Amino acid sequence: MKSVMIVDDETAMREILKIMLKDYKVVEASNGREAVEKYEKEKPDIVLMDIMMPVMGGIDAIREIKKINPKAKIIAITAYAGSKGEKAMEAGVDRILKKPFTRKEVIRAIEELTRSG
């Protein structure tokens, strides 16, 4: 079973994503710092990373995870497009999903990334 780490400071968003990802093993983190720590322990196949979070934001967490594993598959999830998306791409995300998104969009992005290596 593929594993997905959901990183979002909003409990409701993590719950929605857990329901969408019922066919995956799910690991949760509520901020970037927690995400980096859990990534190192759990080594999930995919990371769904919110960009705007307290403690450590998504961009910094993406950079830290890429230091641990340069081949980490990360999908940024954000309500903000534009410069935040550009910064996420520079930090190394593989995809950006703009909120609100559908279950189909999330699953398609995960499947495409896990197929590609």
For the biggest β-sheet, the strand order reads: 2-1-3-4-5
CATH topology title: Rossmann fold
| Class computed from helices, strands and strand pairing | alpha/beta
Mean pLDDT: 93
C-alpha geometry: globular
User: Helix fraction?
Assistant: 40-55%
The helix/strand series, from N terminus to C terminus, equals EHEHEHEHEH
N- and C-termini, Cα separation? 16 Å
Q: What is the CATH architecture descriptor?
A: 3-Layer(aba) Sandwich
| Annotation, overall tally of beta strands | 5
Description of the structure:
The structure is a single chain. The chain is of the alpha/beta class and 117 residues long. The protein has five helices and five strands, in the order βαβαβαβαβα. The protein has a single domain, classed as Rossmann fold, CATH 3.40.50. Strands 2-1-3-4-5 form a five-stranded parallel sheet, with helices on both faces. It starts with a strand and ends with a helix. The mean pLDDT is 93. Keywords: Phosphoprotein.
